[in-house]
Amino acid sequence: MRAVTVPHPGDAHVLTVTDVAEPAPGDREVLIRVTAAGVNGADLSQRRGHYPSPPGAPPWPGLEVSGEVAGVGAAVTEWTVGDRVCALLPGGGYAEYVTADAGLVLPVPPGVDLVEAAGLPEVVATVWSTVFQLAELRSGETLLVHGGSSGIGSMAIQLGSAFGARVIATAGTPEKTAFSRGLGAEIAVDYKSQDFVEVVKDATDGHGADVVLDIVGGDYLSRDLDALAVGGRIMSIADRSGGTASIDVGLLMRKRARIWGTTLRARPLSERVAIIAAVRENVWPLLETGRVHPVIDSVFPLVDAAQAHLRMESSAHLGKILLQAR
Ligand SMILES: NC(=O)c1ccc[n+]([C@@H]2O[C@H](COP(=O)([O-])OP(=O)(O)OC[C@H]3O[C@@H](n4cnc5c(N)ncnc54)[C@H](OP(=O)(O)O)[C@@H]3O)[C@@H](O)[C@H]2O)c1
Which residue of 46, 57, 304, 306 sits 20 to 30 Å from the alpha carbon of 13, by its own alpha carbon? Predict the structure, then answer.
């Protein structure tokens, strides 16, 4: 089968279509004939040589796919050949076939296109496990989402608003702020021309945001804390603008605030399986009714993975970028 591999770290053009052996499912694994794979920021880091696949996973990128079940391991009872599925992976999605732990597989929700379903597992599992499970966002609270037009942001806005939160998003252009409002953000801040701390305080009569989903890092953490309500929770899931932060510890204490960092792929398999089960229970019904939908920017042929990476690096995209394998 064909896979898109990274022969050596470098720019997007190092991605190479390579013939590799088709994988065979282990006892608790499902073999998926890949229809499409999602492109994620982690794939770009991996390509640059900073975020290798964990042991046991294929060395090529790809954290999520959609497709049809082509085979099952001896201990798999919940999936059968021909099922239309999407799955969270530790790597290896940029290929014509991939194996996934049976507990990380989800049915394609009725009404969702098989290609578009490839853009769901990583963003839904990330947003559910951070904003809802760890930070326990509740109806009526205010959620601040940085990067409202990103893959993660576009799902966080939809889920926050679907579960009754008031959502404020940040984004870098007027087109992206309008896009964020279209997904359910009550207020979208152009962070290049407005101070999100002031906007959040004004919009909440000084209360602040109860939960912040931060994909920026660096100096944003201290500004998140400024914008945070007493008892607020900051979820730090990326360090795009820097891996070190300076925090006013007194303010952290006075606000009884919590700051969490987490990465989905590094969590033990049992935790990822539990997240997928919770996602199926809580988010899948919203996808089935259309209340929440995959937000797809563009679909590239698998063999044009370099073009897909260049588009993500341009930051011009709105929502998810996908690779179509067939
Ligand atoms: N920890 C985890 O478990 C986990 C899981 C999944 C993803 N992630 C990380 O989360 C991040 C988002 O992932 P993604 O797939 O959604 O990436 P993406 O679609 O490429 O989005 C990145 C976004 O960051 C925005 N951005 C950059 N600087 C910003 C700033 N100062 N304020 C507001 N927005 C800013 C960009 O929008 P503008 O052009 O508007 O700036 C861009 O839309 C990535 O870094 C990814 O690695 C972490």
Answer: 57
Q: Domain 124-261, what fold?
A: Rossmann fold (3.40.50)
DSSP SS3 for 303: helix
| Cα→Cα distances 274→55, 98, 169, Å | 21, 21, 28
For tokens 């994620």, name the residue.
40
Q: List pLDDT tens digits, range 223-234.
A: 999 999 999 999
Residue of 63, 173, 215, 321 to mutate, ligand 1, most atoms within 8 A of C-beta:
215
What is the pLDDT at residue 17?
98
Cβ-in-10-Å burial (0-12, 13-18, 19+) of 134 comes to middle
φ, ψ of residue 69 in degrees (nearest 5)? -65, 125
Domain boundaries, the chain: 2-120+294-324, 124-261
CATH topology of domain 2-120+294-324: Quinone Oxidoreductase; Chain A, domain 1 (3.90.180)
**C-alpha atoms less than 13 angstroms from C-alpha of 215 in its C-beta half-sphere:** 23
Of 133, 146, 150, 259, the one to substitute when testing ligand 1's pocket (max ligand atoms within 8 A of C-beta) is: 150
pTM given for the model: 0.98
Model confidence over 194-203: pLDDT tens digits? 999 999 999 9
- With a 6 A CB cut-off, is 125 part of the ligand 1 pocket? no
